[in-house]
Amino acid sequence: MTRKNACCHQPAGRRPFLADLGLGCAGMALGDMFAADGLWNRAVADERADAASIDGIPKAKSVIWIFLSGGYSHVETFDPKPALNKYAGMTFDKTPFENPVHSPLHRKRFRSVPAEEINVRDVYPTIFSMQVGWGKHGESGIEITDWWPHLAGCVDELCFVRNMWTTDNDHAAENQIHTGRHKLDEPQPTIGSWASYGLGALNENLPRYVVLGGPTRSDTRQSIDAYYLGPQYSGVPLEVDPANPLPFGKRLSSQTEDAQRREFQLVQQLNGLAAAEYPEDQDLRARIRAYELAFRMQTSVPEAVDFQQETEQTRQLYGLDQDATRAAGMKLLAARRLVERGVRFVQVFPSTYGVWDSHQKLKENHTRLCATVDLPVAGLIQDLKQRGLMEDVTVVFCTEFGRTPGLELRGGGKDGRDHHPNGFTVWLAGAGIKKGCVHGATDELGYHALGDGHYVTDLHATVLHLLGLNNRKLEIPGRRRLDIDHGSVITEILT
């Protein structure tokens, strides 16, 4: 590891060295204790708190953030648009509605990575009919498509936000939904990292921020990274495998627990010496915490993802008894077990990278994919409710963007939709969220989020608010965040 100004360091006497070491270690220990309890961050937040924007009283203890990679079609999931069937085959300018491509919202919210003159996405003029039926469900009468029969039975527990928008029309939007920044801008910490940074631990034997099923590949590492907050606030990927839930996290069979403990103690002592001399080295501090946490996690993590303790009824609730739903069901059941044990933020990728990206064969793809997550996600909602956890846990269900109302024409397309950042739908449920609620809307064709709409960091601000954090006060010296990074709380969906 590179040490700045190491060549200029002057040797000190034995007594000053020991004094410095003692004070350095004591300060580190005290700072770490404060950080572990969230006392430092809460003290700063309390000092600067704006009482008009946040009362500081958390409504949620934990968050389960479910992300479907690739961009599900909002008009064929949670925002049905009958007008697409009525005017199918027509171009936008042949309908009685204003041509959405000519709307000032298009230029205001859209930022293409390719040069604008060669961009063809999101401007396909021929309307493509809905590929599935839909109906009203629950006492709230919320519209949802027929691909979600199990979730339809839970709509009275959910709150749909139908006027989300983002700016990136490529799959870097997967990072944008988690960080709030466009691909062409400087990366920022993720929503999970801010939650980890701002909150204390509820269980010192588990990470505060856990990732299940991701990052989906190397270029989506940004979706779980803490960046300048420090690596100790990044998401910790876990596998849903009690035998090996954490890579390199299992003690060798040839090594006793006592021998491993003594090995870790030696490493900690050596790291402590370096940390006292280089207190600003965040990588070193993160490594020290990682060693401490890794030792404790060896027993707590396998137990957390061990489903043998669950009843057969619970396993069926998540679809663990079916091939199609097992993968997603295991991750979502693990998420419930983790928040139950005090993990603050669990980020779940139920599907593999980009599979919802239905440029072609949308009906075939979405029919199959919805069937893989519908039952497990509905099972999670039911399970949280019957265990009384809906009062403590907020669930977020999202994707990176929607799909175009127009038929994608590239490559001779005839049955798919392209990426659509101008308007899409997410939903929330649980602690602090109104039940059986629809907030916001897109236009008749599902093109633009109406009104001001909600940029992705509005979702961040809302989740952090529910955790008792003021997103506008979550800053560190030397790293000024932009106004769009903070977002605004969606107060209309809160209880």
Give structural notes:
Strand 2 and strand 3 form a beta hairpin. The chain is an alpha/beta fold and 495 residues long. Strands 1, 4, 5, 6, 7, 8, 11, 12 and 13 form a nine-stranded mixed sheet that branches. It has a two-stranded antiparallel sheet with strand order 2-3. The chain has a two-stranded antiparallel sheet with strand order 9-10. Helix 1 crosses helix 8, helix 8 runs antiparallel to helix 9 and helix 11 packs parallel to helix 12. The protein folds into two domains: 34 residues; 373 residues, Alkaline Phosphatase, subunit A (3-Layer(aba) Sandwich). It has 14 helices and 13 strands.
SSE string = HHEHHEEHEHHEEHHHHEHEEEEEEHH
Number of strands: 13
Using only C-alpha atoms, the radius of gyration works out to 24 Å
Q: What would the CATH topology of the largest domain be?
A: Alkaline Phosphatase, subunit A
Number of domain modules: 2
Helix content: 25-40%
What is the overall silhouette?
globular
Largest sheet: 9 strands, mixed
Share in β-strands: 5-15%
The total count of helices amounts to: 14
Q: What is the CATH class designation of the largest domain?
A: Alpha Beta
How far the N terminus sits from the C terminus, by CA atoms, comes to 50 Å
CATH architecture of the largest domain: 3-Layer(aba) Sandwich
SSE-based structural type: alpha/beta
Low-confidence stretches: 1-55
Compute the average pLDDT: 86
